[in-house]
Amino acid sequence: MFPIFAWLRLLGVHNADDRILGLSYPWIGRARSVVRLRSIYPDSHLMYAHLLRIVLYYIMYEASQAAWSVVLYGKSIPNGLPIWIYGFAMIWEYYNLIFVRSALG
Question: How much of the chain is helix, strand and coil, in % rounded to 5?
């Protein structure tokens, strides 16, 4: 979300403040403020690390979902249904974070 907010600021949306995201995502906001204060490394390194962590968690989720769906359901569910359910839940979560819990909504 931080890169998306930076892109929105480039387009002229002045309400897209990183402080809002820092409060919505405190585990990233606190780490980002420490990195900025200490100048340990660029912000992009922290963002890439979190992005790769999200990709890793998604791969782990899909592997677990595939293994358990074979064990529990066999062929009783349509192909791709778990991926669509997870995708819709993730979109709904980000919608809530941006439009319900922030000042942009």
Answer: 75, 0, 25
